[in-house]
Design brief:
By secondary structure, the chain is of the alpha/beta class. The protein contains 10 helices and 6 strands. It has a single domain, classed as Alpha/Beta hydrolase fold, catalytic domain (Rossmann fold). The chain is globular. The two termini are about 20 Å apart.
Length: about 230
């Protein structure tokens, strides 16, 4: 029987691998399925807390790739983590056997500078906002495993372009999971750009509830051939 590759997990902004994947049961389920796994923290987050030198999108991308094992991988990314994985896959499609991205869609193709500035200010903790999104990011950044300065620098740094031509190079199977209440949608442009994409709509799920959604977990484990052997 062919041995399946490790599953790499990459979290979203202002959280960590443990909070996103560990606390929501992902890692236990994958272990029970006898799959090896690698949890990577983006610089400024979790175990990568002190990597101040990597406080840009481009340097963070290099840092993440340095944590990949040799050979092909499966990977799961949420929000910012999904963008990193899609960028890497567009550069090196052969690295991935299967890829799962969640919490991304139309937002990959444009950058809302006003929103980005507001989120950066919310994460700084110096400014109080009334809108739920800013309040949520401010609360996330209160955790002791978040370096507010590094995360702000990351948000404000230039993104590497990710367009439909680049995405068309990703020929591995890609599962796109997006809540029907997620501000990142719709997923149409992303799905059309990927040659081998499947779509799972998460009913009644917003952006921040995605990692703990049972349907997202179930569909991902099925897709990656990682269902627990009860």
């Amino acid at each position: 029987m062919t041995r399946l590759p490790p599953i790499v997990f990459l979290h979203g902004l202002a959280t960590s691998g443990q909070r996103t994947w560990g606390d929501n049961g992902w890692l236990d389920l994958v272990t029970e399925a006898n799959r090896s796994l690698i949890v990577i923290d983006i610089p400024g987050h979790g175990k990568a807390y002190d990597n101040a030198i990597d406080a840009t999108f481009e340097k963070s991308l290099t840092y993440i790739k340095s944590k990949f094992p040799d050979g092909p991988i499966d990977a799961v990314g949420f929000s910012l983590g999904a963008r990193f994985l899609l960028t890497i896959a567009s550069q090196d499609p052969t690295k991935f056997r299967k890829l799962v991205v969640a919490g991304v869609g139309e937002n990959l193709f444009s950058r809302d500078e006003v929103r980005g500035k507001r989120i950066a200010e919310a994460i700084s903790g110096d400014t109080k906002f009334d809108d739920p999104e800013s309040q949520y990011f401010s609360q996330l950044a209160d955790a002791t495993d978040i370096n507010r300065e590094i995360v702000q620098n990351l948000i404000r740094s230039p993104l590497l372009e990710l367009n439909t031509e680049m995405l068309s190079k990703i020929d591995c199977p890609v599962l796109v999971a997006l809540g029907d209440k997620d501000f990142a949608g719709p997923p149409t442009k992303l799905l059309n750009a990927l040659p081998n994409a499947l779509h799972v709509e998460l009913r009644g799920v917003d952006h921040f509830a995605t990692p703990k959604d049972f349907s997202f977990i179930d569909e991902t484990l099925k897709f990656l051939d990682a269902e627990p052997q009860w």
